[in-house]
Every structure is written in C-alpha cells, then in structure tokens.
Task: inverse folding
C-alpha cells in the first residue's frame, strides 16, 4: 500500500489479500487506473488530486484504490507499455473479481492507456462494475461497437462514461501515428454512433474556454461535479455536452 501524502517507496506497506478484502468489505470502492508515460511520483500526485476532487465534489464512494502498473515513463515506450497492459489483463481481471466479491459497489476511473488496460481486464471477468469512467481513452474509437470484445466487456456495468475532447493533441496527433491511422475513443467518441453498446454515455468536453487537454481531467473540477450529479439513464446510448 502507498501513502499518497508520503509516496516514498520506503514508506510502502505490504498487505495480505485477506486483509485487503476485509478492508473493503461492504464498501463502495472506486478504482483509479493511470495511463502511459508517468513516473511513480506523478501517478501518486494525480491520484491525490482525483481523491481530493472526489471529496470536494461529493462523488459517492467509501474508499479509493489507486492501481499502479508499469506503464513506462518514456515517450517512445508506448508499444511496450501497451503490450504490458495486455499481458496484465488477466491479473487485473482477477483483482477486479476479488474486489467485486467483497465490496458493495465498484466504480473504475481510468485514463489514457489505462482505459486499454481496464477494458482488456474486464474481458477476462464477469465481475459486475457499477460505473466505468474512461477519460482520454487511448483505444480505437470503434471498440465499443456492439459485438466487439470491449463492448461485451462493459455490458455488466450499469454505465460506461466516455469523456472526449477534440482539444486533446495527444489523441489527435500521436495516437493515429502509433496506431496506423486509427482515431482514439477519447478523441472522437465511439463510432458508429448507432451501433454503440447500450449503456454508453459520451461526455463531450470539447470547445471549453479552458481546453480539455490529455492530462487535464484530474485537475478539472467540472469533471467531478458532473460525475457527482449526473443521473444515469437506462439502456440507451446518450451523448451530453459538459
């Protein structure tokens, strides 16, 4: 376990799976999953910002769990990080299964390549999530089309929120270069719109006076105000403007 206020590796403490499961039993748990190209210290800073935003804006939760995975911290290691994310999917899926068995409710907030890791992990488990929040998702924009594996992976959740921004230069420029011309889910939103999984809610964050960039989400109060206040519709794809 990592103390976000004092994230030195020397301050980390080990915890058994039994004690971990006991600590979350009956609680509403929110899991944070970071993206690519982050140092350990930057991940801890981002998780502390998100946790603070959740408290300030009264986002429902009892406990926040920040997952740290080897996403790399060098720009040219994207493909290696993506391979590691795919390789970790079964282990993370097993962890999500264990958490869902102990907790009363489970939400996931994922960012960038962490969305790829999240969706791959969900493919390996039938664990029921409450809400899945995909921010600046670095996955193909077609991946939540009905019948595709990632669409099937999010079906057990109550809702899957897809936060998009056309002001995100990383997804606008770098993602297509790395993915052979494909556009990102976090840039365009899911396509084709009439074939998107039923529980998808696209949150369009484009065009704000303060542009929503790739790393903006953890810093923006309006994101967490939205999460706190939005009433989830049932069984229909929805697009809303932030």
Result:
């Amino acid at each position: 376990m990592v103390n976000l206020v004092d994230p030195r590796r020397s301050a980390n403490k080990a915890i058994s799976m039994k004690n971990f499961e006991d600590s979350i039993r009956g609680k509403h748990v929110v899991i944070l999953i970071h993206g690519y190209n982050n140092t350990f210290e930057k991940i801890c800073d981002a998780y502390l910002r998100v946790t603070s935003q959740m408290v300030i804006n009264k986002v429902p939760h009892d406990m926040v769990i920040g997952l740290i995975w080897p996403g790399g911290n060098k720009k040219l290691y994207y493909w290696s990080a993506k391979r590691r994310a795919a390789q970790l999917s079964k282990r993370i899926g097993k962890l999500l299964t264990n958490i869902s068995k102990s907790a009363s409710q489970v939400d996931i907030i994922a960012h960038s390549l962490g969305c790829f890791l999240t969706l791959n992990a969900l493919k390996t488990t039938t664990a029921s999530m409450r809400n899945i929040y995909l921010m600046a998702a670095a996955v193909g924009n077609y991946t939540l089309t009905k019948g595709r594996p990632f669409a099937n992976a999010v079906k057990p959740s109550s809702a899957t929120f897809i936060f998009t921004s056309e002001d995100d230069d990383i997804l606008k420029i770098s993602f297509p270069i790395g993915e052979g011309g494909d556009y990102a889910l976090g840039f365009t939103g899911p396509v084709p719109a009439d074939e998107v999984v039923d529980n998808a809610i696209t949150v369009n964050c484009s065009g704000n006076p303060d542009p929503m960039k790739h790393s903006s989400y953890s810093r923006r109060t309006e994101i967490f105000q939205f999460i706190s206040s939005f009433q989830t519709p049932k069984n229909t794809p929805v697009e809303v403007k932030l």
